[in-house]
């Protein structure tokens, strides 16, 4: 019997995520968008990271592993991802990731796919894709808004504020940009250099896959991007919306330290919009003094909370003396009805999806932002590193779905510049009250809920991201068929 006509055959696409939760989680979810349409998605990663993906394996969603060079970089076995749990070693994990090129290349060359989607941190995939004559798509986990902002820095020589400038009145405007955006913090120079290099290779790729939806980034940024860079962006997100059941949401990412049932039981006992969720992603490691300010700020606001701290910070069995370095005396006892502290990995998507959660105090990591937007949860923005200060502006100044806490120190994700300027308890209390007390917050909440609706529509049949995915799949099939006809 004859096989299916070639254009009906499923595509074979390889995904090569970088070894950090903020890169790995969304790219694997995007891979599942393709596999949910019957195409074969293969994640190429290391064994410990493969474990995290096991719950989602299916006929169309595969994993190929290559060993992580633990010995070569001097890491204990099993530490293969950057996270707050092993935060002292992000550079070693990075070095290990750079050594994966050889085994990954070998696998791809021996089993060439129809297309490869790779994190922009792996620019070598460009040469490989060219050699195999297959299209390569880049992914960096930023919204297009932030990609454009970085591009503006590179193209226009935006003024960079002095690193030691403590004058809170200093500011600059992003040049040649669709909106008038005033910034009070500028990216560290070493970050600008790295991003410029990586973006250069990214622009040589066939296109950029974006974990966002057109309505949030805005048509104006898509046009601006295409006009200034000549490159095409494909908005396919929000990626987290591939997870529809509570179980799937709870199992996404690393293993949570609290059970799904425990979490839901606690949230079910709270009134709608009464709980502030606080989490600063997988890489942030605040000093004790800063945690202390957060504790004072949330307690003074009087609102309920779920506060995620790194397991390094808050071990269950820590001494009272150690605890009092980051938590005011008697804090947990006084707040035992109002709030919980999660020490380690929390089931974030599950929590954000609960009606009791009324606001999210976040570092504006793009995944956290997408997850909050998808659930219609307004944000209190506290950017720390990478592209997060640009994300803050998209959330607060452009789309009006969050308030700024007033953070001004832009660190480097890998810790090469670590400056401490505390965000004070009063700033935190004020921002929480702005959003969660009755009043001004209502309008922001309404906007957030509207964007939540748009986010969910985007990934449904006929929505912008759903249509983009269909168009991209058709495009890739045409490329593949054209190639097979001419080879
Ligand atoms: N995350 C989580 N539980 C945690 C911490 C993080 O589920 O306790 C997830 C979060 O939902 C998001 C990702 O880890 O999907 C973090 O990515 P983001 O871009 O927000 O921040 P990064 O970790 O890259 O700074």
UniProtKB/TrEMBL annotation:
GO terms for molecular function: UDP-glucosyltransferase activity. PROSITE patterns: UDPGT. CDD domains: GT1_Gtf-like. Pfam families: UDPGT. InterPro entries: UDP_glucos_trans, UDP_glycos_trans_CS. Its EC number is 2.4.1.-. It comes from the Eukaryota. Belongs to the UDP-glycosyltransferase family. PANTHER family: GLYCOSYLTRANSFERASE, SCOPOLETIN GLUCOSYLTRANSFERASE-LIKE. This is Glycosyltransferase.
């Amino acid at each position: 019997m004859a096989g299916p006509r070639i254009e009906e055959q499923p595509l074979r696409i390889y995904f090569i995520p970088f070894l950090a939760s903020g890169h790995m989680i969304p790219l694997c979810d995007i891979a599942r968008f393709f596999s949910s349409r019957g195409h074969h998605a293969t994640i190429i990663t290391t064994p410990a990271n493969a474990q995290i993906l096991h719950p989602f394996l299916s006929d169309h969603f595969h994993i190929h592993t290559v060993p992580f060079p633990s010995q070569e970089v001097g890491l204990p076995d099993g530490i293969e991802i950057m996270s707050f749990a092993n935060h002292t070693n992000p550079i070693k994990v990075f070095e290990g990731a750079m050594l994966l090129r050889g085994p990954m290349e070998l696998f791809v060359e021996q089993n060439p796919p129809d297309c490869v989607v790779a994190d922009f941190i792996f620019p070598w995939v460009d040469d490989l894709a060219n050699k195999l004559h297959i299209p390569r798509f880049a992914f960096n986990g930023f919204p297009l808004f932030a990609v454009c902002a970085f591009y503006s820095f590179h193209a226009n020589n935006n003024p960079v504020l002095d690193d030691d400038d403590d004058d809170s009145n200093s500011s600059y405007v992003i040049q040649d940009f669709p909106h008038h955006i005033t910034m009070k913090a500028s990216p560290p120079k070493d970050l600008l250099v790295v991003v410029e290099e990586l973006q250069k290779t990214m622009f040589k790729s066939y296109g950029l896959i974006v974990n966002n939806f057109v309505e949030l980034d805005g048509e104006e940024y898509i046009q601006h991007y295409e006009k200034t860079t000549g490159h095409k962006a494909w908005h396919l997100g929000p990626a987290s919306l591939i997870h529809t059941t509570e179980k799937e949401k709870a199992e996404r990412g690393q293993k949570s330290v609290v059970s799904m049932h425990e979490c839901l039981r606690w949230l079910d006992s709270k009134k709608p919009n009464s709980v502030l969720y606080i989490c600063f992603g997988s890489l942030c490691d605040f000093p004790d003094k800063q945690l202390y300010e957060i504790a004072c700020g949330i307690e003074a606001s009087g609102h309920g909370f779920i506060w995620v701290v790194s397991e390094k910070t808050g071990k269950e069995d820590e001494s009272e003396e150690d605890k009092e370095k980051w938590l005011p005396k008697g804090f947990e006892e006084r707040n035992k009805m109002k709030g919980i502290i999660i020490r380690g990995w929390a089931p974030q998507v599950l929590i954000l999806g609960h009606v009791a959660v009324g606001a999210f105090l976040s570092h504006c990591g793009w995944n956290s932002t997408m997850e909050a937007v998808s659930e219609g949860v307004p944000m209190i923005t506290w950017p720390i590193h990478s592209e997060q200060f640009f994300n803050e502006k998209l959330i607060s100044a452009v789309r009006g779905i969050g308030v700024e806490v007033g953070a001004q120190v832009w660190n480097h994700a890998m810790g090469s510049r670590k400056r401490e300027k505390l965000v004070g308890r009063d700033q935190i209390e004020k921002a929480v009250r702005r959003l969660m007390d009755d009043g001004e917050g209502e309008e922001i909440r309404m906007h957030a809920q509207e964007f939540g609706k748009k986010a969910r529509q985007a990934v449904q049949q006929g929505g912008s991201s759903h249509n983009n995915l269909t168009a991209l799949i058709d495009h890739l099939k045409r490329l593949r068929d054209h190639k097979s006809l001419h080879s």
